[in-house]
Design goal:
- The chain has about 70 residues and is mainly α.
- About 55% of the residues lie in helices and about 10% in strands.
- The protein is built from 5 helices and 2 strands, in the order βαααααβ.
- A two-stranded antiparallel sheet has the order 1-2.
- It comes from Marinomonas profundi.
Length: about 70
């Protein structure tokens, strides 16, 4: 399972979904799905834009978590 830390990072920086969307040009729905961890796919370009905008690395944004069987 892949965990997305967008909501945590945005909370620390006191950013709203609309702020990130307006300033990056990323579709608001895409950011909302990543924020709420309901996205099933995401473009590499979107990940790159988010990392550049937030000043973080991909490893800060996404994490692979092992699932127990």
């Amino acid at each position: 399972m892949i965990k997305c830390h967008l909501s945590k990072i945005m909370g620390e920086k006191k950013l709203k979904i609309s702020d990130v969307s307006n300033e990056t040009g990323i579709n608001r729905g895409t950011i909302t799905r990543l924020y709420h961890e309901t996205a099933v796919r995401v473009e590499f370009e979107v990940l790159e834009q988010l990392c550049n905008y937030l000043g973080c690395g991909i490893e800060d944004l996404l994490e692979i978590q092992k699932t127990e069987e």
